[in-house]
Design goal:
There is one protein chain. The protein is α+β, with helices and mostly antiparallel strands. The chain is 18% helix and 22% strand. It has four helices and ten strands, in the order αααββββββββββα. The strands form three sheets. The chain has a four-stranded mixed sheet with strand order 1-2-10-7. Strand 8 (128-132) and strand 9 form a beta hairpin. It starts with 7 loop residues before the first helix and ends in a 10-residue tail after the last helix. The protein binds zinc ion (ZN). Zinc ion is lined by residues 124, 169, 171, 173, 176-177.
């Protein structure tokens, strides 16, 4: 939960024929669908962010990589994904008071999750959807075919009941809701768009 601004555009903008576009052309019809999210991190890497990033990039080699853009971190697909692929599996590192970097997993439960999932940016038109997992956090599934080189993004309003610290959304998607208030504000839209891919506690 680092940024409400996706940098998809900046990844693709400089070159008309991006790496993603080339990969899509070459792989059309034979999309690679075997990517499976590895197990969550074995260590908490407290106070060692670079070590945690390096560990996540190593575990997810060939699946995704953590990029640092001027506006913050984000995740880039290193391969293509098919709808339904489990792309990332996260785990809760600690239960902690809500802040702009926590993820909500229950009415009164906010957790700090491991990398790489902690660096997934927000979009109102996400390509990843969440499901509760048995690590106290979420697994992230491809909601549609995702091309290599794309930014991996999910919708924070599918887990957060209330969002107060970011009122203006700059995700830039055609479905952008312009302001984020959480499931409390946009629940009906979120449910109709993501279906089962919302936090379990919000289905109760
Ligand atoms: Zn938006």
């Amino acid at each position: 939960m680092y940024s409400y601004r996706s940098y998809t555009t900046s990844l693709k903008a400089p070159h008309g024929t991006s790496k993603a576009a080339i990969a899509t052309t070459q792989s059309r019809g034979t999309v690679h669908c075997s990517a499976t999210a590895p197990a969550p991190a074995a260590h908490s890497f407290a106070n060692n962010l670079q070590g945690e990033i390096d560990d996540a990039n190593k575990r997810y080699s060939g699946i995704l990589k953590i990029n640092k853009a001027p506006l913050g971190y984000g995740l880039e697909a290193s391969t293509s994904f098919c709808e339904g692929d489990k792309v990332i599996s996260s785990k809760a590192l600690e239960v902690t008071p809500r802040d702009s970097h926590t993820v909500q997993t229950g009415w009164d439960r906010h957790v700090r999750i491991d990398l790489p999932a902690r660096f997934v940016n927000h979009s109102c038109e996400a390509n990843l959807g969440i499901r509760n997992n048995n690590h106290g956090a979420y697994d992230f599934f491809a909601l549609k075919e995702i091309e290599e080189g794309s930014e991996l993004i999910w919708d924070y309003e599918a887990s957060e009941y209330e969002i107060g610290s970011f009122e203006t959304c700059l995700c830039g998607s055609q479905r952008c809701r312009k302001s984020l208030g959480g499931f409390k504000k946009h629940g009906e839209q979120v449910k109709s768009y993501y279906g089962e891919y919302v936090a379990d506690y919000l289905k109760e």
